């Protein structure tokens, strides 16, 4: 049996990058998957890959900033699978690399809506379902190393990921009475399309950014998925309100 056999896992932002890696890792360990994303082409590819690994899986298009959309996809997942045991709040975006003095309000609002509001809506919507199910559960919020330390030209991103970090702790306190654990994962630089886009825009930034990490490389998404798998499994039963930092030594300096 796999480490999450019998669990139903709901994952946002599953069309590519870390979201796809989480989905496939959890599928390989026995989970049933309810996966969502705005990118329906990529989502279909993730669904097919998960099913090829033997997972029972279903997919829905989903805008994580939309309250009604959350209600709809969570209800649909519960109809399809009967319940949700684990939520992986993975959907997120990078921000424009500009000074806090120059960032526009529209850009600030866009990043906060997806990275912070979207996570809040997921915690609230799925948390209510878990409470009513009476079986407990695990909520895993994907933050960032930039939710712990600041960075130049990244004010909106840092603010949004810092919000995820403290929302996680507050939600853990609210939900512990229902045996629902809430933890956050804080990746450093990960080899995903989001990072590729940043480095394509910024060129010479790559060496400087990698140099901040003691290991001086970008992580493979599967290295972050190992942390997600642990938090999704019963192996982490005594962890809530905690931060798992997967940053190659970034915050050790």
Automatic annotation (TrEMBL):
Domain Ketoreductase: 7-183
PANTHER family hit by this protein: DEHYDROGENASES, SHORT CHAIN, ESTRADIOL 17-BETA-DEHYDROGENASE 8-RELATED
Name of this chain's protein: Ketoreductase domain-containing protein
Family of the protein in this entry: Belongs to the short-chain dehydrogenases/reductases (SDR) family.
Pfam families: adh_short_C2
Species in which this protein is naturally found: Immundisolibacter cernigliae
NCBIfam families reported for this sequence: PRK07231.1
UniProt keywords, alphabetically: NAD, Oxidoreductase
Alphabetized InterPro entries for the sequence: KR_dom (IPR057326), NAD(P)-bd_dom_sf (IPR036291), Sc_DH/Rdtase_CS (IPR020904), SDR_fam (IPR002347)
GO MF: oxidoreductase activity
